[in-house]
Amino acid sequence: MVPVGELRAAPSKWDVFSVRGVDYVRLNDVWNFYGFTKRVGRSGFISYGAGDRTVSLRPSRQDFYVNNYRYILSYPVILEDGSLLISTIDMNKLVDPVLRPRLAGSGKITTVVLDPGHGGHDAGAVSPFAREKDCNLALGLKVRRRLESAGFKVVMTRDKDFFLTLGERVAIANRTPNCIFVSLHHNSGSRAASGIETFTLAPHGTTSPFARTRRTEDLAGNNQDSENIALATAVHSHSIKKTGAVDRGIQRARFSVLCTIKRPAILFEGGFVTNPQEGAKISSDRYQDMLAQCICEGIMRYTYNTCNRPITQRRSGSGSVRVGSLHSGSIPGMRATSPR
Ligand SMILES: [Zn+2]
């Protein structure tokens, strides 16, 4: 473990270590910075926290929990010379934007571009229990209604059953000012597979399970890395909490719709059409309503946390939305030295 330099000093010193070509910082420095102390958390994990926030992780693994919501790190946590280390990329692109979403720094968000996946001749995932393109569209229309009631402008990439290319979907978002982009999909897998997962673009210089090669060039979507993860966190955690679905985590990918988009963007997978129980649920009006409410409230939480835009929610039968606590300050030098 060789220290390769220091991030900006005040108020705390962050040594950076290069291990097998990846830069890391000590987790002890991270905990000190956030004022976290050791606590009992998930079984089998090392947990730290303060107030109502608990972070859990374990050596040699990429799963990482914040308040019991699952994230997949770009690099495993490692143990070197008795110190636990986390990569600077994960620190910059995941941990800090999640713990301090306000610093993700979106401009004002007035508009949501909703993108129900597939359509027309492209049915997406199909099973005897559900057809993806129909679930995506039904969910999208319900999210639109709720967002409009909450005061957002909504642009649908499709509001009927027709086909458009991935490039056309991205172009709609890229020409819409002050927007975020939410692509809505449902999954396929074995009959047993179930749950919700949310994808954001893999940070520059990392691999992703869906694109094993490391990308070294900048992708347009990487300019919003912090916003992407903050948006994913708000929508995903709210959906898991309210639906009780299996938490498949916030994951990284290089799907085409995420690579070239110039707006904060996520791809949300609302459940498995191939699971008999979940397939029936995601086709039902009642569950779609609940999921639409989760997505809408997640988006509201994101816009509040990152833009400090007070949202007056109209009561829709389930009470008000609790937004996270806000924090100020920034990690010394971390952003400035972060590789994009
Ligand atoms: Zn799909």
What does this structure look like?
By secondary structure, this protein is of the alpha+beta class. It folds into 2 domains: 2-95, Copper Amine Oxidase, Chain A, domain 1, CATH 3.30.457.10; 104-307, Aminopeptidase (3-Layer(aba) Sandwich), CATH 3.40.630. It contains 9 helices and 16 strands. The strands form 3 sheets. The protein has a 6-stranded mixed sheet with strand order 12-11-13-16-14-15, with helices on both faces. Helix 3 links the parallel strand 11 and strand 12 (153-156). The protein starts with a strand and ends with a helix. The structure holds zinc ion (ZN). The site of zinc ion (ZN) has 5 residues, from loops.
Task: Put the structure in a nutshell.
The chain has 340 residues and is α+β, with helices and mostly antiparallel strands. The protein contains nine helices and 16 strands.
Radius of gyration: 20 Å
Bound molecules: zinc ion
Strand order within the widest sheet?
A: 12-11-13-16-14-15
Summed up, the domain count is: 2
Count of extended strands: 16
- What is the CATH H-level superfamily of the largest domain? Zn-dependent exopeptidases
Strand content: 15-25%
DSSP helix fraction: 25-40%
pLDDT average, as an integer? 83
Structural class: alpha+beta
Unreliable stretches: 1-11, 308-340
